[in-house]
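Comment thread on ticket #2218

A.B. wrote:
> Attaching the input chain for the structure job we discussed in standup.
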Amino acid sequence: MDASMEITRQADYAVRAILELALRPAGACVLSADLSLAQNILAAFLAKICARLAAANICLTHRGTNGGIRLSRPADQISLLEVVEAIDGPIVLNRCTRQPGECARERTCVIHPVWLKVCAEYRSRLAGYTFAAMAAQARGAAVSGLATGLYEELPIKHRI
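C.D. wrote:
> Ran it. Output below, let me know if you need it in another format.
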């Protein structure tokens, strides 16, 4: 396992997929092929990501002719923290912050409370970003011409 403090590619794709769903009208079901194309995520990889997001009650998947993927609840009730942790598991800085009592030096270590505070602040920051707010920001950027990344590269019919 890489020891860097970086989310996985799978978590990054999950964030992009949920943002794409948040940009759609509330309750809209999006074909996985369209979601895959819109965010340039391999279909097989997206299927695995959506299965984990569905298990975490972040999105719902429906099979069949009218099937697709949609958010399980309003985008203002889904945080960046929720999506990242649904894919990567709980965010911890080191083994000492994983759970109380795991570190033998917990009671005597001067840095332990610092790690706890930093981890709590980081988690709080991620929890503070909702997909509704990020979608609104993305819409504003698109309107003002500041949109970056894949949205500029997609044909008009696939832009949000």
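A.B. wrote:
> Thanks. Noting for the ticket: The chain has one domain: 9-155.
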